[in-house]
Amino acid sequence: MIIASLLFLTTLIFVIWQPRGLQIGTSALIGAFMALMLGVVNFDDVLSVTNIVWDATLAFIGIIILSMVLDEIGFFEWCAIKTAKLSRGNGHLMFVYALLLGAGVSALFANDGAALILTPILLAKMRILKLNAKSIIAFLLAGGFISDSASLPFVFSNLTNIVTANYFHIGFGEYLANMIVPFIASTIISIVVLWLVLHKDIPSHVDTNLLKNPNDVLKNKMLFYFSWLFLALLIAGYFIGDACGLPISVFALGGGLLFLTISSITKTVEPLQIIKTAPWQVVWFSIGLYIVVYGLKNAGLTDYLKIILEDLATRGDATAIIGTGFISAILSAIMNNMPTVMIMDIALTNIPNEALAYANIIGCNLGPKMTPFGSLATLLWLHVLDKKGVHIGFWKYSKFGLIVTPPILLVVLISLYLF
Question: What is the 3-state secondary structure (H, E, C) of 391-407?
C-alpha cells in the first residue's frame, strides 16, 4: 500500500507541477512504467485498465476533433458573440447567458472541450469589451466551474461518465433519462450560487457594440448551418448505437472524423493540422494514470472503500446517495477525478443500488472543483489561461471552489435522490 500510494502521489505531483515543461501525459506514462517495474501492477492489470478505458479514450478523441473543427469554422465564436449580444448590454444577463452557453458546450462537447476551446474565446471577447481584471476573473471562474458541473446529461459529456456507464453497462438512453434532472438542477443551482458569490465583480452595463457581427466570424456559412444538422444526426446516432449495443466511440470518433473529412473537402480546415494539434497528451494521461491507480486497487484501497459504501447502502437511499457523492467528491478533490471514478466504480461492484453509480459520477464531476488539480478539465483550463496571461493562484482558486462546490453538490445529489 505504501509503495502504491507514494508512486501515485509522485505521479500526481509531476502532473500538477510539470517541471521543465514535462507534459501531463508523459508524467502519467512514466508513472505507469514505474508501477510495472516495481510490481505494483502487472501486464494483466494493464489489459484490464485498457478494457475499461479504451471506449472512453476513443470517444474523447472524436469529441475533441469535432470540437476543434467546429472551432476552426467559427462555430463557438459565433455562439459566444450571439449570447453576449442577446444580453443587450446588461452585464448580469450576459453572465447568465455565458454560463448557459458553457453548460451547453460542456454537455455536447465534453468538459475538456469547453475548457480547451470556449475559454480562450470568452477571454478574448471580454478583453474586447474592456472589462476590468476583477470582472474577467469572475467570468472565467464561473465559466470554468460550469464546464464540469454541467457535464452530466450525456454519456459523452465527461470521461468519468463514459467509464462508469461502460463499467456498469448503462445504455445511452437509460443514462440520459436518469441524469437529465440532475443536469438541469446542476445548471440552475450553479448559476444561482456563482452569481451570489461573484455578483459584486460583474459590471452592470457592457458595450456589446464593440463586438463583431456574429456572422462575420464564420469561415464557411454553409458548413456552419450544416453543422447544426450534423450534431442533431450525431445525437440520434448515439441512440441508435445504444439500441444496437454499439460502443459510444463508434459514433463519437466516427462522427468527429467524418466531419473533419467533410470540412477538409470544402477546404475549410487543414486536416493534418487538426490531427497534429489535438491534445494527445490527454489520452496518455488517461491511460497512464489509470494504470497507476490500479496499483492502489491492488493494494487494497477499494476494499476499504467497499466496506464504507456497503454500510452507507444499508442506511437508506438518501444517505447512501449523498454519502457516496461526497466521498467521490472529496477523493476527486484530493487525488483527481479520473482515478477516483475507477476506484469508486470497482468499490461499488455488486452493491445492489444503481443510483450510487450516478452519485459517484456527480461527485467526480463536481467535487474536483474544490482544488485546481481535481480534474483534467481544470488543469487544462488553468494552463490555457496562464498562456493567455491570466494567472489564478492555488489558494485563490481553492477558496472559491470550497465556497461554491459543497452547496451545489448537495442540491444536485438531492435532485438525483428525488427524481
Answer: CCCHHHHHHHHHHHHHH
Listed by start position, the domains of the chain span 2-418
Is residue 69 scored above 80 in pLDDT? yes
Specify whether the CB–CB gap between 385 and 290 falls below 8 A: no
> Of 75-89, 277-291, 334-348, which range is least confident?
277-291
- The pLDDT assigned to 335 comes to 81
Q: What is the pTM of this model?
A: 0.91
Q: Which residues contact 236 (CB under 8 A, 6 or more apart)?
A: none
Q: What is the pLDDT of residues 395-417, one digit of tens each?
A: 889 999 999 999 999 999 999 99
- What confidence tens digit (pLDDT) does each residue in 170-197 have? 999 999 999 999 999 999 999 999 999 9
Integer Cα distance of 271 and 8 in angstroms: 37
C-alpha to C-alpha distance for 152 and 47, rounded to whole angstroms: 28
> And the C-alpha cell for 68?
476543434
Beta bridge partners of 205: 90
- Which grid coordinates are listed for 37? 517495474
Which one-letter DSSP state was computed for residue 213? P
C-alpha distances out from residue 160 to 18, 111, 342, 365, Å:
23, 10, 8, 7
Q: Hey, what's the torsion of the CAs at 114, 119, 120, 124, to 10 degrees? A: 130
Please tell me the distance from the alpha carbon of residue 138 to that of residue 140, in angstroms, as a whole number.
5
Per-residue DSSP letters for 281-325? HHHHHHHHHHHHHHHHHHTTHHHHHHHHHHHHHTS-HHHHHHHHH
Among 292, 276, 280, smallest CA distance to 29 is for 292
Helix/strand/coil for 205: strand
Is residue 286's pLDDT more than 90? no
What values do phi and psi take at 388, rounded to 5? -95, 10
Longest dimension (CA), the chain: 62
